[in-house]
Structures are given as C-alpha cells and as structure tokens.
Amino acid sequence: MNLRHAFLLGGVVSSSMIAGGCSSPQSKGSEAVVIDLVGTRWKLTEVNGAPVKAGPEGREPHLILQQDGRFSGAGGVNLVLGVYKVDGENFTLGPGPSTRMAGPPDAMAQEAAFIDAMKRVGSYRLSGDSLTLLDANGPVLRFEAAAPR
C-alpha cells in the first residue's frame, strides 16, 4: 500500500472518530458557540511563524475538513485537495491534487510554504475559534474560524 492509499484508508477509518466530536467551546456574549474541527472554514493566518497575506484578487488561503476524511481548500492562488486523519491529538494531512495556476512570486512562495507545512503536521490544538497545526518542533500552521463563502 502506498502512502496515498494509507492516508485514504486512514481518513475513511477515522471519519467515525471525527463525527464523534472534535470541537471547542467559545464564549460569545452570554451564549457559548461551539466551533467544530470538521465542516468549519479554517482561514490560514500564519505559516511557519509568518503572517499570511491574501492571494491575487483577495483569495484567502484556507482549509475545510470534511466528514469523510478529505479536505478542500485554497493556497491563495490554487485550489488544494487531500486527505487527513485525526487520532486523539494526532493529526496528519496528505495534500493531493491541486490546480496549477501561476500567480505573483510572493503568493506562490507562500502557497508552497503552506503545502510543505501540511506535509509535516503531526498534531493539532483547537482553542476557541483558533486551530493550530504542529510538527515535532511546534506550530507550523495557524488558522481562525471564518464565515463560509
């Protein structure tokens, strides 16, 4: 079994675990709002400690984790697809196909750093409306929950 199939199998197996709930309560006034890991549009705010800028035409880098173990999103220039697996605090992303549009050099460099960081992720922290993805050395990607578009 190659790595892509292992991620796909892991994503399918873990989808029942995900449905059980990875969520974080967040206070909003007097009512608590629960932010779910799955189904939320996660807007990328930081890659490897550097703040993220929107891509051409204001395209925001983001991820949306789906119930079936797949994710979709954008790197700022191109659309990205892949698979993920959650097992306790362990979290892995397997970037898959993406569109192949060209963009400004700084947007392309940021997108490449985003995709490279995805490959290194090994765990996550969900706190309020913030999602942090970590590798063995610490945070590599930070997101905030955003309204669907």
Describe it.
- This protein is α+β, with helices and mostly antiparallel strands and 149 residues long.
- Helices cover 22% and strands 46% of the residues.
- Strand 5 and strand 6 form a beta hairpin.
- The protein is globular and about 40 Å long.
CATH hierarchy, class: Mainly Beta
Give the overall silhouette: globular
User: How far is it from the N-terminal to the C-terminal residue, by CA?
Assistant: 37 Å
Q: Give the class from helix and strand content and strand pairing.
A: alpha+beta
Q: Considering DSSP H and I runs of 4 or more, what fraction of the residues is helical?
A: 10-25%
Uncertain runs: 1-20
Summarize the SSE layout with pairings:
Blueprint: H1 3-19, E1 23-28, E2 31-36, E3 41-47, E4 50-51, E5 62-65, E6 70-74, E7 79-87, E8 90-98, H2 105-120, E9 123-127, E10 130-135, E11 138-146
Antiparallel strand pairs: 1-2, 3-4, 3-5, 3-11, 5-6, 6-7, 7-8, 9-10, 10-11
Task: Name the features.
149 residues, alpha+beta, Lipocalin, 2 helices, 22% helix, 46% strand, disordered N terminus
